[in-house]
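Forwarding the complex inputs:
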Amino acid sequence: MKRLCVTLATLLAATAASAGCGGSDGPAGGGPRTGGALTLAQTSNPDFLDPAKGYTVEASAAHWLIYPGLLTYRHEEGAEGSKLIPAAAEDLPEVSRDGRTHTFRLRKGLTYADGTPARAADFERAIQRALTLQWGGLAFFSVIEGVDEYVKRGKPGADIRGITSDDRTGEIVIELTAPDGRLGNILAFPAAGLVPADTPLEDLSRRPPPGLGAYRFGAIEPNRRYELVRNPHFALPGIPKGNADRITVKLMKSSQRQVQDVIRGRLDWILDEPPADLLSEVRTRYGDRYEENTANSTYFQFFNVETAPFDDARVRAAVNYALDKRALVRIFGGLLEPDCNFLPPGMVGYERIDPCPYGDPAQPPDVERARGLIRAAGSEGAPVTVWGTDEERSQRVTEYYTDVLNEIGLRAKPRIVGAETYYAAIGNVETRPQTGFLAWFQDFPHPANFFFLVAGESVQDVDSVNPGRVSDPDVNRRYEALKREPAEQNAAEWAALDRLVIAPEKALVAAYGHTKDTTFVSERMNLEDCTVYHPVYRDDWSQFCLK
Amino acid sequence: MATELIDRAPAGPGGLPGEEAAGVLLAPAAPRSALRRLAGSRSALGAAALLALLVLAALAAPLWADHVAGTTPYANHITDRVEVGGKARDVVSPDGVPIGPTWRGRFFLGADVNGRDIMVRLLYGGRNSLMIGVAAALLTALLAVATALVAGYFRGWVDGVLARGLDVIWAYPVILLGVALGTAFAVGGVRLGPVELAGDSKAIPVLVIAVVYVPYMARPLRGTVLALREREFVAAARAQGAGAVRVMWSEILPNLLPGIVVLLPLMVANAILLEAALSYLGAGVRPPEPSWGTMIDDGVARIVTAEHLAIAPGLMLVLTVAALNVLGDRVRDALDPHAGAGT
Amino acid sequence: MLSFLVRRLAAMVLVLFAISVLTFSIFNVIPNGEPENRMAGRTQTPAQVEAIRREWGFDRGMVVQYATTMRKVFTGDLISYYNGSRVGEEILRGLPRTFSLAVGAALLWMALAVALGLYSAVRSGRLSGWLTGALAVIGISMPVFWVGALMNHYLGFEAGLFPNGGYVPLTEDPLAWAHHLILPWTALSILFIGVYSRVLRSSVMDTMSEDYVRTARAKGLSEGRVLVRHVLRNSLIPIVSLWGLDFGAVLGGGAILTETVFDLQGVGQYAAESIDQLDVPPVLAVTMLGAFFIVVLNTVVDVLYAVLDPRIRIGRL
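Prediction (whole assembly, three chains):
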């Protein structure tokens, strides 16, 4: 129902009508209302307001609306929202037969928020900026020919061999090092969003460059607040042009006060979930303006498959049998969707693994069976150091998990370190972490962005995202073949890989669920018609509206 | 600096700044009469009794855990249910809210988010807090006395170097230094010659606290040593050919002891407070070890739905530190009847 | 006097230098704490890490890195590793908050400590005197973040009498400014009231037994006048000097706990958060600032002391 309304609203908005799905015109009848100013809040700063540097979710929610690239995602919920549509490009690319050459054509007559006309050469500039400014997801651009070379040479503004453009025809040709099904997703990153070709190669977080999106940055007070205002030059079809005239985003460290301010109507929306302490009150007393949506994330314990005792699949399976997902749900304050899948429910290729080989997540675990497996593997009393960060969830999970390992016959001790060193520590081969906490939030909605965490290609000696050094021949073979193609073509194959990774005979990870994002809005916001939970960028600010 | 933690009393009578005032450390009274005076003070006896009780409780932690609560400080009971007033209740609700005090053997003071028994953790946490407090205070005393003796005895450039070193720590904002060291050591551990401390060792907060507080004790002691060095009995010992170590050990040190004894209870109190502060900022005792500081830290985050989590460890801490402070005051009064008037 | 000041100044610079070296070293020996790793993001390539090292100068020697960083401290060009924000700007933003906290709390604790200390000295030996003494002991025995959190919760969140944390600039709304600061001022003051009142009490009691006080009494001056004119004036010296030092410490980011509990986002909280993020530039800058305040006020207090009390000879630092 809601989906339908929103879709309709989007179409109507594109044709400059303000009638909502409620049918009536005025604000009283519900339906998206345009105009007005909203105030949002988030607990942490966006890391950078320059699209070529911003990498966190705090930054990308705004950048998504301001800096569309050649392609972007549909502004829809669920699987629809994972689909790519042309934004600055006229159409989806023509792909050469070998899958390595992708040809785009820039839409004609586009102008940036400051009035500068868009040119085909602007695309290469965006990529150059992301590379020179060390954008956090820079490694993804390596699929483009010449990118690695550009990074290595370290010469700002040098030509990137794999990108050629023709300002006259608007043609942009991208050469890949190998066919890659993720290219569309990579080009949809706001870091690849078009900016004028004369934009300097430096961090412009104080005065971000103009983009082609429905909004542009207004006033900015670094580390305090920033504003999104309408872009008068916006002209991209298929993308909502935004309901609110002005969106102010404030930084507010105390999430308790954020919730209070939403209740009192001083804030319209908050990015972060209400603190665990207030969650049940929000759920019960303000249920009519509160929603939960499962994020494209996965929470799991990694196993180092190269060191004892987790080099034995029986031990890894034992842990899976012993984990009580009901306990984990409580640790998350209910903000966990427990299941056995490694892939999150919102992802292409997700098929709920039911029955779960390790038992129903809503039932008590089979600790006896786990003990038996540990005995069978001869690992009783094996010393285990469990790694975790000192952030709330991770610390709780790590302490719980350590207790579980001890319960099934291992001799476990937690090792909890600050988040700032955690990933470098466990990603370093010399640390030899045996097992520990990991959570992954997608960079883009492609199953490869999850399975690469357990693929041989990501085993590195330092800064590895695969600290368990998992490299299973069966998994690697399937993964390598599947990642070359867009996800939709192989949904069933990805689902099979999902089952393989968690199957008791492999048990490469102990996956226990997916976190839920919360939406909590003020009384004056129209939750019913105007909140679209996007699978990549979460609540779509451009569709927020007042009652 | 006092910042929020340190009671400046240790810096000398009246808390005079710098070392100018330090030479006037205590004139030792006869130990026996001092003890009698101490025993005659009701508040001193009360404080000592309270401390003894707290120490006993901490020592009895395993007894309570085994025989009354039937659990350990680390065991999670998230999905267990507990009988309260004939009704079975969740230890942790599906929303993640832990149970409050049951006033029965199991979960006497309620549970934390991990479904662990707060009473049991409180007792074990007391062990850690007291141990760290005492160990840190002793280590501070050791380092301070050594520094003061060497600096005060040799004077000249040795003194200059050591005194500057103390100035540096003194001028470093206390909590900043504590948190910085605590954070750094927690990640990498410490290597001190042959001794290697892992990042989660309890010796790390001890070391950090001890180092941070050295100047507060060493500066006044150094002043005393400087003064003592000029006294006749030291000169006499040296004239008889006693070596430096000998003079320091058998002539000067005994005269420093009363001052150290006075400072110790206050140092322990301050060390316990600093441990709590470091834990609150995530740089103290490493989980899953409980300490009153880490428990307060956990509790403050849940104060809306489970206020017992913050109140229980806080009260224990306040009681302990207050008892130590009272005892420290009385010890000072007893050793130096002129320093202040107490009851 | 002049040579004394010059020597103090030289010592000050030396101490600040040592503190900067110490801070810099603490964060540079942390294993896996290399900033380039954190800056490169979740999925990184060796080439990318290498490029960051080059760009930020992490590939150069420690001494060069230290020198560059220190130069930036003084030119105000220091940039956070964590999010590229300008450290100087952040500190300037935090200072009015820290200043508001420090000034208000210092006045509050001084006033209350004098009242409490005098009262308990005069009432010494009676129940009321004992009670105020006990109150002072409890005051110095409570962790500030615990009291602060309880106040914030019960008086702020539950009762709604005060805002539960946060800060409003004085220039924006003086009433709201004070309203937001009442709890932090109180929380921060409790400890100092305890300390100062105890110090004052014992020095008042010492002074009262001095000959000149007895003489004044014998001359028939009223008890109140004796107390104020003769006793208090002399007893205040140690307190005022303490006050200077503690004020310096709080200004220099020493009120980390209070600022954090009440989310005031002053300089201290900034430092605490930066330590958590292993973000060396802000930690270095705030530490230097804090040490500077402490050292300067130490010197000021010592000089004042010498002026006020000629018995103390000015010696070496």
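The longest strand of chain A covers residues 509-520.
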